[in-house]
Amino acid sequence: MAIIYSIFKKELKSYIQSPLAYAVVSVIMALAGYFFCVSLFTSRIAEMTSLFMNLAVILIFAVPILTMKLVAGEEQDGTIEFLLTSPITIPQLVLGKYLASLALFIAITILTFIFPGILLSISTPDKGVIITSYLGFLLLLAAYIAIGIMCSSFTSSQIVASISGFGILLLFWIVGWMSGNISGALGQFAKALSISEHYGDFLRGVIDTTHIIYFLSITIVSLLIAMLGVAKRAWS
Amino acid sequence: MIQLANVTKNYGSKAALKGISLTVKRGEVLGLLGPNGAGKSTTMRLIAGYMPPTSGTIKVAEYDVVKQPIAAKRVIGYLPENPPLYKDMTVKDFISYSAELKGLKGKKKSLRVDKVMEEVGVGVVKNRLISHISRGYRQRVGLAQALVGQPEVLILDEPTVGLDPQQIIEIRQLIKNLAGKSTIILSSHILPEVSSLCHRVAIINKGRLIAEDTPENLSEALKGKREIILKIKGPEKDILSALQNVSGVQSVSANPIDTDISEFRVIFEKGRDVREDLFFAMASRGFAILEMIPSKMSLEEIFLELTTEEDSIPVSFKEGDKNGNYI
Fold this sequence. Notes:
A: mainly alpha, B: Alpha-Beta Plaits, six-stranded mixed β-sheet, four-stranded antiparallel β-sheet, 12 helices, disordered C terminus
């Protein structure tokens, strides 16, 4: 635990000191503000569904940019040699880095509390839906970041890590769209795989264990593959 | 303390190490010598547990580095060829982070970090970002990272490369102070450095261990070269008999290369220098020596590639590092 915490602290500090993190956070917050205002002024309904949908799409771009350096950056700088010859295990390394990235995005999530705050001050939104939406959003973040670190662990190029992460996330997001056009098992499968399908229910105020298990499975499987990726580069 | 048994390592289809067996006793300082690409760094990386060997076993302090990696890594301090440094961290933060990864905590950790910073002499730059310090300081920070866990085994891959002469002396002194307390493997291509620091030297070439002995014994073996190749102008038979009459010469063979020029291979007794005698013997008979080359024996050949005279250090120092930073 102490090792994971040390890695977590180091990575979080490195985020806080990097201009990239501030740029990404600023862009996310600016876009979120824009989507919030547009939805509020056009629909005049005190709800956040469209904001959460749009945030999920913004994060498809934002998450890989902040996770790309986690393992690929170590390879690029040669510091992976330092880490892999330190008396730490690969799960400790991956988890420490994963949690640091998760903490950064949780901080961004806390920044978005301003939007429900505004709604509460001017109206009476459905608090339950907002809470389930945030739960869904956190689960989504957990899965996104795990996919991001997985992509980072298979390449020494941060650009490749970022683009492949973006591709995989986008694919998971849009795979549900084809379920409308395809009937039968394949359509059902596409729907079951789709992030947007599972995420959508949270935004409607539904907490279904299927969805929770879905996001946790993606997170855990991606983290395991990430660990394999780090192990593979050490053992090849 | 360190045991390598028949270790091989392939990178894809390319064999980097072709079966190395080596033992280093507790408290001993072993120097690894070899030309670039000989397998020195690969050997050190395998011992440090960065990657597993393709076959063979490596034991560090009774721990198998493949089967008990964490226990083995805990007793090892490793300085890779390019010191791995986080450029966005300060010197102190990085050394402190290394200490944490090695399991040090709290007050013990901060005391150890301060001590090691003082030992390697990076105290003056401790609050500066690693990206802002010079190559020499970076090398020392790398060394501090290796030392911070008070390792029983130190693996130093070219610890003095890129340093100026003053810094080299300081780092060597530091290594000398550690000798006896820690078991040390260091690689170098500077022969005097190895002979002054190491109890034993292992020479690696093309993935094989070709010699392993004390520096004194190795130098002795080098001095024992006993063959000279001559190109002499004149009648071959006369020269041949004249050469054979020079005292100390054991045997001569001839090989004509032109109408009146031949190449002669002279083997002489150990411990004698017959070059002057050969010269006067030929001169008195009016045969002109065109070339005289002491034959290189294989060990010396390798050594020549390895040996960089101490004098040449300031030259590489002037070149600065790859970013053009001067020390």
